[in-house]
Design brief:
This protein is of the alpha/beta class. Helices cover 45% and strands 15% of the residues. Strands 1-2-3-4-5-6-7-8 form an eight-stranded parallel β-barrel, surrounded by seven helices. Helix 7 packs across helix 8.
Amino acid sequence: MAAPRIDMSLRERLIVALDVPNVVQARNMVAALGDTVSFYKLGLQQVFGGGLGLADELFRLGKKVFLDAKLTDIAATVGNATTNIARTGTEFLTVTGDAPIVRAAVEARAKAGARKPLILAVTVLTSLDQKDLEDMGFSLPLDELVVHRALKAKEAGADGVIASGFEAAKLRALLGPDMRIVTPGIRSADSPKDDQKRVMTAGEAIAAGADHVVVGRDILRSSDPAAKARAILDDIASAL
């Protein structure tokens, strides 16, 4: 049986990560992608390079913005940051998956009287594998740790989680149809993994239960970014 789907347009399921060196290159990529892409992720590289101004430009173009800030700090600081972000119109905001941090962000959004950003809890980065977790002192198997953090985030009020495609099916069954599952670490079948360790194609991740896939290098490095994005959208469509 196919995983339940949140109703949205096909284009909203693809989020392009603007992981380029500067705002000028980001603007050029957005122009090259045109109407093919409607949703962009701004990570720390862009945030500390003028990315918040870029977010305003994306809003004016009618695009959605995912602010991948991975907020982690004391509850008061996370709450105050979330309050400010809620004023911007940002669609998604990431926080680390610790329950007090998730709760602080959710409560701050509510106090601001805002519906957005949706709060997404990071479970385990797709650049990490079991050995990395053991080196960090985690004793749980990777997939169990992802599930544990996802369930704690849901209890704390998160709207969704960041998780690899390898955990998407299990998470969909446990979290239900309304929690967003956003999957990074997406690569085409013939693309190098680079610094990612748990990767899938876009279609595989969506078929496993993800709602959105985050794609960076496959599109950013393409000689024809718009054509590459359309191919990824076709792959997503085939999995729905």
